[in-house]
Specification:
The protein is mostly helical. The chain is 70% helix and 0% strand. The chain has one domain (8-75).
Length: 76
């Protein structure tokens, strides 16, 4: 019988959510805010500059992309 992993997409969704939560928590602690959407454009630019320093294959890229999308929807 071939190897199978039923519903692997659920594992991937959970991992992405954990990564996004960790990134969000770090950003909120650093800037002392209770909501990502309250960051200024300058602060978000700092966050994205940090992201650019990460390895392009870093799993943390998921989190930064998700956080930026959330911020952008509320602020642009």
């Amino acid at each position: 019988m071939s190897f199978e992993w039923n519903r692997i997409h659920k594992w991937e969704e959970n991992i992405e959510r954990d990564v996004t939560d960790a990134v969000e928590q770090q950003i909120m602690e650093h800037y002392s805010v209770d909501d990502i959407t309250t960051l200024t454009e300058e602060q978000m630019n700092e966050v994205m500059a940090f992201r650019e320093e990460l390895n392009e294959y870093s799993v943390m890229q998921w989190g930064f992309s998700n956080i930026y999308s959330q911020w952008e929807m509320e602020n642009m």
